[in-house]
Amino acid sequence: MYILYHHPYSQHSRRVVSLLEEARFDYELRSVALDKGEHMSPEYLSINPNHQVPTLVDRDVKIHESNAILRYLCIKHGLWNWYPEELKARAAVEQWLDWNQCCFSPTVVDIVVNKVFMGDKADPAAIKRGEGRLPELAAILDAGLAGREFLAGTTPTIADLSVASNIFHLGLAEAMPSEPNITDWYGRVSGIEGFQKSLPPA
Fold this sequence. Notes:
Elements: E1 2-6, H1 11-22, E2 27-31, H2 42-45, E3 55-58, E4 61-63, H3 66-77, H4 87-117, H5 124-144, H6 158-172, H7 180-190, H8 193-198
Parallel strand pairs: 1-2
Antiparallel strand pairs: 1-3, 3-4
Helix pairs in contact: 1-3, 1-6, 4-5, 4-6
């Protein structure tokens, strides 16, 4: 059985839960109370020295980064419908996973963490930076989805689970993009059972 250290309001955790649910894997969720500083405790730092969630434990294997966890699960179990072997589709998956982590996630964090979770400790400059950057990134995603049902073709992949987790997160700050291709695509991803099961309590 897999063990996943997570927090329900971590988009990085939710994308892993989505795949675990879709693949019908046995797993145990262990909550890390970020709001109480548990991610900085010696006990958790011994599991993840980066003091972040998620962390997947598979017997003697520990993996910290969410997209790396998604890849690991797909390769270990041959989930090629989620991580296609065909080179063109695989390249698209890799591109969007990296874009999500390197380009999109920092903007999402700037907006959502500060507008939703930080209260009077919020950084107005970070919010302004994120809101200024978001239209360009949304336009890139919208263009990438033109003529496509999903990011790498006609079926969903781990790239869709990864990016959609950030789109949902923006919704917490009432900043979800409204571009038509994004809206239609997000509606399709939202219909995936595993994605639905990953969402935090209302």
